[in-house]
Specification:
This protein is mostly beta strands. It folds into two domains: about 25-155, Immunoglobulins (Immunoglobulin-like, Sandwich); about 155-475. It contains one helix and 39 strands. It has one helix spanning about 1-20, and strands at about 25-30, 35, 40-45, 55-60, 65-75, 80-85, 100-105, 110-115, 130-140, 145-155, 155-160, 170-175, 185-190, 200, 205, 210-215, 220, 225-230, 235, 240-245, 260-265, 280-285, 290-295, 295-300, 300-305, 315-325, 330-350, 355-365, 365-370, 380-385, 385-390, 395, 400-405, 410, 420, 430-435, 435, 460, 465. The strands form four sheets. It has a 27-stranded mixed sheet that branches. Strands 1, 3, 5, 7, 9 and 10 form a six-stranded mixed sheet that branches. The protein has a four-stranded antiparallel sheet with strand order 2-4-8-6, with no helix packed on it. A hairpin with a 2-residue loop joins β9 and β10. The chain is globular, with a radius of gyration of 30 Å. The relative contact order is 0.07.
Length: about 525
């Protein structure tokens, strides 16, 4: 009985709904559309690299259901733009280029999705950038409503691995273990030719896979050069090879016209501070005479990975450089030697500076900060240890021969921002001199000899837990103001008489990479 009643009620509801429903009547559009923007800027792209997807919202402002006779790109099939209109891709040879009889209900809206890929050589010869444009034409019974499309296309030098006849990408072979025999690796990439060993500022460089510097070769990067890495790409400096980054001071702090910049190959503003877009600059075990001056290295996985050669004082000397927004480490050293002065590191998913498996580290007038979300990282701004644990939990040790930090600021949004891990079977030599460190241990969790802050052979003139008052660390602005605890508390040290902005250092010097300045309100 109940089942029969249910069927009767359902039939009545169906009949009632059917009697009320009326077919929609669509009237051809007479030009009463409005748009979320009158020009869609697809930002800057490299030649032959697809853009992100951009959106245009189209509104029917009338009280009638309308039919848009045609939505099309003015350049038609020859346009380098492509569209998707509310999930439709179009038909035939005009897929993505032209759409007919698009329905839009009264007081409703729809999305148009737009992308582009442009080969700059198809546009103009002997130009390094070109403004590419087109128009989306919304035809109606009264005429046409237009929305402009604008994209800046840049030419670049593209470096990518070759493919064999089966389409498999070339991989690198080099002496991995130092036995004098080349080892085949799974690293996709290729060695730079001799003609490619100087990067200039004439055009940007876009690297797919790893660009490798071969045995006995030196890659020279001139002032103002721009190096962009595709996803999972990087730079590899192999045995007996060298990297010379020859940046110079810039007059414009925003443009950094003379600085060498390493970043990802997505130029849209959305990607400006996104970490993990590429891999790393890898100074492989056996590489030597690596010099980096006035560089900005940002948005990768590890900014610089330096392996081995802990007795080689020329392994890596880095000065006047900024390293930001890396998903793992800003600088990761493993049993290596690093000399650093006037460097700034911030926003690292793990540690900003990590000297692991021992080694030699001498860091002067540097700001080692970490304002990555403290909820998502487990390591401090600065990590030092003398061991490594592999996937099988095998522990390998090596002496920390020296780790000297002078006139430095070591700070962040977590506590503590310093971790010292000593495997007692090896030497563990370090000293902090005239530095400011964030380390607060109210529960006494760190009681080993390494944290005896009264031991002046380890900690000399060190300030603890005083906020340096950075300008805006979330935006990587780590300047310090007059009145900061870091002002005038340094000691004369290092080889550079100017700070990272090329300003003569105060006397007595301020801590960190920056001189104190007056902040604007």
């Amino acid at each position: 009985m109940k089942r029969s009643l249910y069927i009767v009620v359902s039939l009545i509801a169906l009949v009632f709904w059917s009697s009320c429903r009326q077919d929609f009547i669509f009237t051809p559009s007479s030009g009463n559309l409005s748009f979320s923007k009158d020009t869609v800027y697809l930002d800057t792209i490299f030649s032959n690299i697809g853009s992100s997807t951009y959106t245009l919202k189209v509104y029917n402002t009338s009280d009638e259901d309308i039919l848009i006779p045609s939505i099309k790109l003015r350049k038609g099939q020859n346009s380098n733009y492509r569209m998707n209109v509310d999930g439709l891709i179009g038909n035939g040879i005009l897929i993505g280029k032209e759409f007919e009889n698009i329905e839009l209900l009264a007081r409703d809206s729809m999305y148009v999705f737009i992308e582009t890929t442009v080969d700059i050589l198809d546009l103009v010869e002997n130009e390094t950038q070109f403004l590419y444009t087109d128009v989306i034409a919304f035809e109606n019974t009264s005429g046409v409503q237009n929305v402009e499309l604008v994209t800046l296309v840049k030419d670049a030098v593209f470096i990518f691995p070759n493919r064999d006849e089966n389409g498999i990408k070339e991989t690198l072979s080099f002496d991995v273990d130092g036995d004098g025999i080349e080892d085949e690796t799974a690293i996709e990439g290729r060695f730079l030719e001799d003609s490619e060993l100087t990067f200039t500022n004439e055009r940007p460089y876009v690297i797919y896979g790893y660009a490798a510097v071969g045995d006995g070769k030196t890659l020279n990067i001139n002032p103002g050069a721009r190096i962009h890495f595709h996803a999972d790409s990087g730079l590899l400096v192999t045995n007996n090879a060298s990297l010379h980054v020859n940046g110079l001071p810039s007059l414009d702090a925003e443009l950094l016209e003379n600085e060498v910049i390493f970043e990802g190959d997505r130029l849209e503003p959305l990607y400006e501070n996104i970490s993990g877009q590429w891999q790393t600059i890898w100074l492989f075990n056996g590489s030597t005479d690596n010099i980096i001056n006035y560089a900005t290295i940002k948005n990768g996985t590890i900014g610089i990975l330096s392996d081995g050669n802990q007795l080689d004082p020329t392994k890596l000397e880095i000065t006047n450089s900024q390293i930001y927004n890396h998903s793992n480490f800003g600088i990761l050293g493993r049993q290596t030697s690093i000399i650093a002065e006037n460097i700034v590191i911030n926003n690292s998913g793990l540690s900003s500076f990590a000297g692991t498996l021992g080694g030699n580290y001498n860091v002067t007038h540097s700001t080692l900060a970490n304002y990555w979300s403290s909820s998502f990282r487990q390591f401090p701004a600065l990590l030092l240890n003398n061991f490594i644990v592999d996937a099988e939990n095998t522990v390998t040790t090596n002496p920390l021969m020296s780790a000297n930090f002078t006139n430095c600021i070591i700070y962040g949004n977590d506590n503590p921002e310093l971790l010292l891990e000593n495997e007692n079977s090896e030497d563990f030599n370090f000293k902090f001199t005239n530095s400011l460190i964030y380390f607060n241990d109210p529960n006494g969790n760190f009681s080993s000899a390494e944290y005896d802050f009264n031991n002046t052979t380890l900690y000399e003139n060190v300030i603890f837990n005083n906020d340096p008052q950075f300008l805006d660390p979330s935006s990587n602005k780590l300047n310090i103001p007059f009145g900061s605890p870091a002002e005038g508390t340094g000691t004369v040290s290092g080889n550079l008489t100017k700070d990272i902005t090329n300003t003569t250092r105060n006397s007595p010097p301020d801590l960190g990479a920056y001189n104190t300045i007056e902040f604007e309100d």
